[in-house]
Amino acid sequence: MPRLVKTCLVLVFLGILGSILCLGVWAAGIYIFGLPSLSEQVGEPVSDLPRAQEIGLGLYLLARQQALDAPAGNQSTEIELEVLPGESAMQVIEALAEAEIVHDATLLRLYLRYRGLDRGIEAGRYRLDGGMSIRDLAASLQSASAESLTITIPEGWRREQIAAYVAVQVPGIDENEFLTASGEILPGYSFSDSAPQDSTLEGFLFPETYLVDPNGDAASLVARMLSAFEAQLDENLRSAFKNQGLSLYQAVTLASIVEREAIVPEERPRIAAVYLNRLSAGMTLDADPTIQYALGLQPDGSWWKSALSFDDLELNSSYNTYLFMGLPPGPIANPGHASLEAVGFPAETQELYFRALCDGSGRHAFAETYEGHLQNACP
C-alpha cells in the first residue's frame, strides 16, 4: 500500500478516535459534574433519533448555538412561501436558501433533523423573512395556519411605546412581558460591557420591520431586535465612534438624542456635530428630548411632552441636560441606522447651537455663537 494512502488512513482513524473521545468526555461531564445536557442547550431531540446521531448532532448544534438565534439570512428579504403537499424538508430548505431567507442551509437541515421537525412541515403558505432565526423558521414551518405577522417599529420610540404597540399587534406577547424581557442588559452583545449594570435595553431595540409568529414570546422578539442592532455595526462605524471619543453605549445614547431632534433626515450629521462640539467645549447639551424622556407619560397619554415650560427646564433629573454636564445616563429612545451614522460621521462644522425654524418645516437654523443663535429666534 502506498505510503500516502497509509498516512491518510491513519489521519482518518485518529480523527474518528478524537471525536469518540470528545463525546465520551462530554457524556462523563454531564454524569459526573452536572454539566448542562445537550437538550438543555439546543432543545429536546426527537425520541427515535439514534443515540450516536443525537450526541453528534447535539454537539454540532451546541457549537453553533449563537448562529441558531441570529438572523438566518438577508434581513431585508421576505417571501411568501408555498409548501405543496408531499414536498420534502430538503425542498423547502433549498427554496429558503435560494430566496436568501437562510444562508446556512446545512444548519437548518440538521436542526430540523435533531428536533424531528423535518417531519412536521405542513403544506400551506408561510410569510417568512431573513431576520428570523433558525429556531424561528423551524417553529414557523410547523403550522401553516399560523401565518406570520408584520410589525414595524418606528425610529425614535422609547421602550414603553414599543411594548404597548407589540402587545396590541402580537397576540402572544404581553406588554409587561416585553418590558421585563427588555428590562436589563443581556450578556454576550457588543454593547454589554460598556453599559452600566442597572441599564435597560433602551437604545438597542432596533427599529425595523419584523415578521413574527403570532404566538411568539417577548424574549425571542427582543433577541431578534438586538441581533438586528448588532448587524448595523460594521468595523468602520465602531471605529468612527472611537474616533469621536465615545464608547458604543455613549454613541447610542447620543444617537438617540439626535433621532428625537432631527425631523429632516439630512440634518442628522449637523445636529450630531453640534452636540459633539458642545461636549468638547465643556458645555451642557441643552437637549429638550432628554427632559421629555425624564418627564415620562403625560396626562394626554403621550410619552413626549411637545412644549416644555421653564419649570420643566429646572427638573431635578440626571436626564436634564440643561442642568447636568455631559451625556444623560443612557439612551432616551431607540435610534435608527442614519442617526448612528450621524454620530460616527458628523458634519464638519464649529456650530454650537440650533433651533427650529418658524415655518413649520421641521428644519433648524444653526449658529456658531450665542449671539447668532438669538438672531435665529422667531419674530
Topology:
Elements: H1 3-33, H2 38-42, H3 51-63, H4 65-69, E1 78-83, H5 89-98, H6 105-115, E2 124-129, H7 134-140, E3 149-152, H8 159-169, H9 175-181, E4 209-212, H10 218-231, H11 235-243, H12 248-261, H13 268-280, H14 288-295, H15 337-344, E5 353-356, E6 364-367, H16 370-375
Antiparallel strand pairs: 1-2, 3-4, 5-6
> Into which percent range does the helicity of residues fall?
40-55%
Radius of gyration: 26 Å
Total separate domains: 3
DSSP strand tally: 6
Q: How far is it from the N-terminal to the C-terminal residue, by CA? A: 97 Å
Strand order across the biggest sheet? 1-2
SSE sequence, one letter per element: HHHHEHHEHEHHEHHHHHHEEH
Shape: elongated
The class by helix and strand makeup works out as mainly alpha
Q: Which stretches are poorly predicted, pLDDT < 50 over at least 5 residues?
A: 7-12, 14-23, 25-35
What does this structure look like?
The protein is mainly alpha-helical and 379 residues long. The protein folds into three domains: 69-140, Endolytic murein transglycosylase (Dna Ligase, domain 1, 2-Layer Sandwich), CATH 3.30.1490.480; 149-231, no CATH class; 246-375, no CATH class. It is 45% helix and 7% strand. It is built from 16 helices and six strands. The chain has helices at residues 3-33, 38-42, 51-63, 65-69, 89-98, 105-115, 134-140, 159-169, 175-181, 218-231, 235-243, 248-261, 268-280, 288-295, 337-344, 370-375; strands at residues 78-83, 124-129, 149-152, 209-212, 353-356, 364-367. The longest helix has 31 residues, at 3-33. The model is unreliable at 7-12, 14-23 and 25-35 (pLDDT under 50).
